[in-house]
Design goal:
It is a single chain. By secondary structure, the protein is mainly beta. The protein has two domains: about 1-40, N-terminal domain of TfIIb (Single Sheet); about 60-115, Roll (SH3 type barrels). Helices cover about 10% and strands about 30% of the residues. It has one helix at about 35-45, and strands at about 20, 25, 30-35, 60-65, 70, 75, 80-85, 85-90, 95-100, 105, 110-115. Strands 1-2-3 form a three-stranded antiparallel beta sheet. The chain has a three-stranded antiparallel beta sheet with strand order 7-4-11, with no helix packed on it. A three-stranded antiparallel beta sheet has the order 8-9-10, with no helix packed on it. The N and C termini lie far apart (about 40 Å). InterPro entries: YjdM (IPR004624), YjdM_C (IPR013988), YjdM_N (IPR013987). It comes from Steroidobacter denitrificans.
């Protein structure tokens, strides 16, 4: 099996994984995981959805559906603000983005809708 068809390491995202019996091994961080766990992980990944249930993907454009205070400053992201080229990330604030006039920040998908 060529290395391009093997999954990336879930710890360090290295593309240089290799098979060893029923395991995948990462030579860069020495992490090992079972082939079965890798298949289950891919199936269990939940799609990130916006406030109205549309599935979001990287590079989508979204619109903020309510005024959001920016923590640690007096700035407010106003309702109706369009945010282009979002990046989906794991965690509570699952959207990484850059908003004109404010800068880089993270948003919760429940406060946006796909444009």
């Amino acid at each position: 099996m060529s290395s391009s068809s093997l999954p990336r390491c879930p710890q360090c995202t290295s593309e240089f994984t290799y098979e060893d019996g029923n395991l995948y091994i990462c030579p860069e961080c020495a992490h090992g995981w079972s082939k079965d766990a890798s298949a289950e992980e891919a199936e269990s990944k939940q799609a990130i959805r916006d406030a109205v249930g549309n599935e979001l993907q990287d590079d989508d454009t979204v619109t903020v559906i309510k005024d959001l205070k920016v923590k640690g400053s007096s700035l407010v992201v106003k309702m109706g603000t369009k945010v282009k080229n979002i990046r989906l990330v794991a965690g509570d604030h699952d959207i990484d983005c850059k908003i004109d006039g404010i800068g880089a920040m993270q948003l919760k998908s429940q406060f946006v809708k796909k444009a």
